[in-house]
Amino acid sequence: MKKFIAIAMIAAFASSAAMAGAECKAQPKDKWQKEADFQKKLTADGYKIKKFKVSGNCYEIYGTNKDGKKVEIYFDPVSGAPAKTNIEN
């Protein structure tokens, strides 16, 4: 039974780590780009944003890119650089 519990705990940890978001460096909020301005920039770059949120120290979007592929992207809110990108194949 102990072996089963240990295996279940390892599996749960592994699946939660795989689903974890990006790690963006903690920075003062007054240095972050304004959400509305950042969304406008992404839209100008061809993204269609279905959902935009703050996720930890990152901006996160769900939507489509200029090629129409579904995306989930985490961005550094100061530099605007992608921290983690998931694009539908």
From TrEMBL:
UniProt signal peptide: 1-20
Domain PepSY residues, every copy: 5-85
Keyword field: Signal
UniProt-recorded name of the protein: PepSY domain-containing protein
Organism of origin: Vogesella aquatica
Source lineage: Bacteria, Pseudomonadati, Pseudomonadota, Betaproteobacteria, Neisseriales
